[in-house]
Automatic annotation (TrEMBL):
<keyword id="KW-0012">Acyltransferase</keyword>
<feature type="domain" description="Aminotransferase class I/classII large">
    <location>
        <begin position="113"/>
        <end position="333"/>
    </location>
</feature>
<dbReference type="GO" id="GO:0016874">
    <property type="term" value="F:ligase activity"/>
</dbReference>
<dbReference type="GO" id="GO:0030170">
    <property type="term" value="F:pyridoxal phosphate binding"/>
</dbReference>
<comment type="similarity">
    <text>Belongs to the class-II pyridoxal-phosphate-dependent aminotransferase family.</text>
</comment>
<keyword id="KW-0808">Transferase</keyword>
<dbReference type="InterPro" id="IPR015422">
    <property type="entry name" value="PyrdxlP-dep_Trfase_small"/>
</dbReference>
<dbReference type="InterPro" id="IPR015424">
    <property type="entry name" value="PyrdxlP-dep_Trfase"/>
</dbReference>
<dbReference type="InterPro" id="IPR050087">
    <property type="entry name" value="AON_synthase_class-II"/>
</dbReference>
<dbReference type="GO" id="GO:0016746">
    <property type="term" value="F:acyltransferase activity"/>
</dbReference>
<dbReference type="GO" id="GO:0005739">
    <property type="term" value="C:mitochondrion"/>
</dbReference>
<keyword id="KW-0436">Ligase</keyword>
<dbReference type="InterPro" id="IPR015421">
    <property type="entry name" value="PyrdxlP-dep_Trfase_major"/>
</dbReference>
<dbReference type="InterPro" id="IPR004839">
    <property type="entry name" value="Aminotransferase_I/II_large"/>
</dbReference>
<protein>
    <submittedName>
        <fullName>2-amino-3-ketobutyrate coenzyme A ligase like protein</fullName>
    </submittedName>
</protein>
<dbReference type="Pfam" id="PF00155">
    <property type="entry name" value="Aminotran_1_2"/>
</dbReference>
<keyword id="KW-0663">Pyridoxal phosphate</keyword>
Amino acid sequence: MYRSVISKLFLEAENACKIYTQKCSAWAATKVLIDSQLDGIKEAKTYKSERIIVSKQAAHIKVKGDTRSVINFCANNYLGLSSDPDIIEAGKKALDEYGAGLSSVRFICGTQKLQESSSARIRLIATDGVFSMDGNIAPLPEICALAKKYNALVFVDECHATGVLGKTGRGTEEHFNLNGKVDIINSTLGKALGGAAGGYTTAKSELVDLLRQKSRPYLFSNALPPAVVACGIKALDILTENSRLVNTLQENTKKFRSAMKAAGMNIIGDDHPICPVMVAEENQATLMANKMLDRGIYVIGFTYPVVPKNKARVRVQISAAHSEQDIIKAVESFKEVAHELSTL
């Protein structure tokens, strides 16, 4: 009896070892492939080490391993509201009143396979309001004209336009004086509107009602924490009260773009705070970003596959929180680094 038990244990142990060896072999083969990919990125000098911010999101931040305060030119904090005292206070009040979160999805339901109708004739034109890597604004008048011609709906993702474009920061519609012409607007609370998290969709009430019934992200995602919602509402209140922050952002953007072009830098995009500084070689983007950080300017280099091949750039993002001195220092630093790398 004991022998049979011991034999069984040995057999189970042997099988376990075989399974472990097979798993190790599978991982070993996978590791070779992963290491090869990483080595290739490092050899091309496009490897990006993630930096750790150890302060609040603001125009001036602190990075782990650096005792200095550096000027932040790579955040989506367009209006400088991430550290706004009123928004932070609104979040604190919501935490006290409603708790950390709702710990549930908005509605529990089963899944259903949707059957496409062969006779469906709904057309939808979808576009970004602002393209995040180039800083280009979508040609909305032409898109709306196309939609009218073909009896189509227009969907615009306004993540980099809300709080940025238009006289009051309403986005691409307002920028082109086309308020009410877009059928569906998708945007975020995670950028200009305080930078917390989450987003929203606006459309005709019937469409929004259908999304509440059918949209998988809505049905199967936890509701936003009350503190996040409170921060977003407060940010919208601030935007509604006056356009001071929007005006400051637009003025700062013009100052930076004009100064960079005057310095001979190759800066692309439209009149938007996303300001891509193009470089000649792929490996120069990360190198330039590192040398800018040495001078106290925090920016990030982007290379393939994030952007197309031979389109490497250092993306600069302007904020209403930046002072004129911040912008001047950034431009002067770019000039110094460009001369050092012989990119001018």
